């Protein structure tokens, strides 16, 4: 009897260490997806320079619906080959920086999230920024922009939407894999007096096509993917980055107030969406 009682804490410690080790591996993959293109995909001499005065950095690759799938496949290759660069001793500083920041936010989640469980302050905000409304907004804005581009025969506007589509798919593929590995339950599935610090590797339900977990936030990664494309394609219109990133931030914040995600989920999704758009989609291949 004594042996069984003593063995339970040991078993729990072993399971906790295994989870921490696996989570650490996920952090390195996430960080690599963001920072590897920073050092590998800088503009090279002789690369195509933008002729349109609306943007300071046009992508050099061809963009069309016909090339949509090949472009995404090429991007995925660049994203998932990061461990090779890490094994060669590259990109350790940004990788550790991102992993450390994410880990720090995860440690704070049990202290931050109970407030959003108790407060009624954001009830009206949550009704406006519901999950369905956020998805509709992220779909309707690019669709309207694309329709306007067709009506004006503006290929630049059309390509901006095509690039945002590529960016969202690039980000969501990575996000899907990470969510299926980490299997983090959302805050709203934790009982009122439950343990908010034990949320990883706990979820065993959910459709495979959205990921069996909540880390990182899928809404946030999509919102920042779209926002980054629009902000960087129209830098001379100073209001565009403010509106684009402002709306993306509202989407991310709503994930927390709705108890769909922890703050760390939103942080990871925002950084992933921005980095993949900025350093993969909008850089020469």
Reported for the largest beta sheet, the result is:
none
β-sheet strand percentage = under 5%
Average pLDDT number: 80
The amount of helix comes to 55-70%
Number of strands: 0
Low-confidence stretches: 1-59
The CATH architecture comes to Up-down Bundle
Outline the secondary-structure elements:
Elements: H1 2-40, H2 68-80, H3 82-87, H4 92-118, H5 123-128, H6 131-152, H7 155-182, H8 218-233, H9 239-257, H10 263-281
What report would you give on this structure?
- The protein is mainly alpha-helical and 285 residues long.
- The protein has a single domain (2-39, 61-72, 94-281), classed as Up-down Bundle (Vanadium-containing Chloroperoxidase, domain 1).
- It is built from ten helices and no strands.
- Helix 6 (131-152) runs parallel beside helix 8, helix 8 runs antiparallel to helix 9 and helix 9 (239-257) packs antiparallel against helix 10 (263-281).
- The longest helix has 39 residues, at 2-40.
- It is globular, with a radius of gyration of 21 Å.
Produce a short descriptive summary.
This protein has 285 residues and is mostly helical.
Keywords:
285 residues, mainly alpha, Vanadium-containing Chloroperoxidase, domain 1, 10 helices
């Amino acid at each position: 009897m004594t042996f069984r009682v003593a063995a339970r804490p040991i078993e729990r410690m072993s399971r906790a260490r295994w989870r921490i080790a696996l989570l650490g591996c996920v952090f390195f993959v996430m960080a690599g997806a963001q920072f590897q293109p920073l050092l590998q995909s800088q503009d090279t001499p002789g690369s195509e320079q933008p002729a349109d005065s609306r943007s300071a950095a046009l992508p050099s690759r061809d963009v069309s619906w016909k090339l949509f799938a090949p472009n995404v496949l090429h991007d995925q290759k660049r994203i998932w080959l990061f461990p090779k660069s890490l094994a060669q001793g590259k990109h350790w500083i940004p990788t550790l920086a991102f992993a450390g920041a994410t880990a720090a936010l995860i440690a704070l989640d049990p202290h931050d999230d109970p407030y959003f469980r108790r407060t009624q302050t954001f009830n009206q905000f949550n009704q406006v920024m519901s999950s369905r409304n956020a998805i509709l907004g992220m779909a309707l804005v690019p669709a309207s922009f694309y329709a306007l581009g067709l009506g004006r025969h503006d290929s630049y506007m059309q390509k901006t939407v095509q690039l945002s589509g590529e960016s969202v798919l690039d980000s969501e593929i990575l996000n899907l894999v990470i969510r299926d590995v980490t299997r983090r339950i959302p805050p709203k599935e934790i009982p009122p007096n439950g343990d908010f610090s034990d949320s990883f590797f706990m979820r065993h339900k959910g459709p495979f096509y959205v990921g069996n977990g909540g880390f990182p936030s899928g809404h946030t990664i999509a919102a920042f993917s779209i926002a980054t494309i629009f902000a960087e394609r129209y830098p001379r219109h100073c209001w565009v980055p403010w509106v684009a990133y402002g709306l993306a931030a509202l989407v991310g914040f709503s994930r927390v107030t709705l108890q769909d995600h922890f703050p760390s989920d939103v942080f990871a999704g925002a950084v992933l969406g921005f980095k993949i758009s900025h350093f993969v989609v909008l850089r020469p291949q």
